User: What shape does this take?
Amino acid sequence: MEPRQAQLSFSNTEIAFKHKSDAELRKASILFKSFDYPVLLRWGPALAKIALSLGLKGFIKSTIFSQFCGGEDITDCEKAIQQLSKDRVGTILDYSVEGADDEQSFNETTHEIIETIKKAKSNANTPFSVFKVTGIVESDLLEKVASGKPLDASDRGKWEHARKRFFDICNTAKELQVRLFIDAEESWLQDAIDGLAVEAMQTCNQEKAIIYNTLQMYRHDRLEYLKQQYSQQKCYLGFKIVRGAYMEKERLRAQELGYQDPIQKTKEDTDHDYDEAIHFCLNHIDRISVCVGTHNEKSSHLAATLMQQKDLDNEDSRVYFSQLLGMSDHISYNLAHHGYCVAKYVPYGPVKAVIPYLTRRAQENSGMAGQMGRELGLITQEIKRRKNLSK
Ligand SMILES: Cc1cc2nc3c(=O)[nH]c(=O)nc-3n(C[C@H](O)[C@H](O)[C@H](O)COP(=O)(O)OP(=O)(O)OC[C@H]3O[C@@H](n4cnc5c(N)ncnc54)[C@H](O)[C@@H]3O)c2cc1C
Assistant: This one.
């Protein structure tokens, strides 16, 4: 670990990719280059399904799946957990199966999330667990609850079951003292998720932050919400601060249904509120624990600098930094190298079920009109650095 005074820099690709062999780097480079082919991006999900039906699961597993996922089940993720821990990077097991929409699947997902909490309890290298409420509750039902309209008898029954699943997960986290993130989702579902999260914080966060809700700072109302929560709640608070993943969908729906767009007008506005939220949490660190969930270098740097200014130890676990597996290793590994608390989301699930997740990662990493994507640029830089060394 570097001494505190050493300058934190995210441009050190040697630290960022120390865990990757030359062959692994080349493989990652080919993969990220392939995201620049619009045809592959467009037809990727369909091609992946065809490849699976032709028995080519091994190909998908050894390429895009191994870049962004830890394995098909918790045991399968052990290697990724160990690999990350060698460089002081923690793992947040993220059960990434999407599209469950019946009670049996919701119960199975609940069971799986509880297993990740148990795993986190038994392994010091998995400091958090995480889940999406839409993995255990029908989106339509969440939307109805979020709208505030009364539920009919059938929906009331379903909501009771959903709440039971939700609190089974949160209470397990409390009992085992494992910190738990609740992911943020679409704005029309979020009031229902926030309501559950506030209840869970009130019961589980009396002594410290166990339950963390997520705030999407691309919403123009979230900074105010954060401040409101701080003044209204008396318990400890946990917040994962992100920019938000559903911008296009949000804007489109607002336009189609004719209500005010919940998203900030510009990227600068989102960045401004993101950084303000970091300031606010760190100014109230006695009661707010925070996870800086971002691939943005400036915001990550800001949080690290504010910690120093406030004389917080780099390893103070009330401030965590988090990125997704296979992305922004230059941020994760350089922060960890300087002693900050860092953990990667490590998605897992059967190959077929995580294809929507993999598709989103591919789209996010496609460069714009001949411009090299952020990840590919870093990988290329490290390959060159190693070549120059061996000359
Ligand atoms: C550990 C972790 C956990 C996450 N959990 C969640 C979660 O629970 N819920 C969720 O929704 N997302 C989540 N995300 C995804 C996250 O919201 C972002 O989509 C993603 O990280 C990209 O944003 P960034 O902060 O890395 O920075 P950047 O790459 O600097 O910012 C890109 C983001 O800025 C915003 N933006 C872009 N253009 C505009 C514009 N014109 N106007 C306004 N805003 C704009 C969008 O949110 C866009 O995704 C998570 C990400 C990480 C790393």
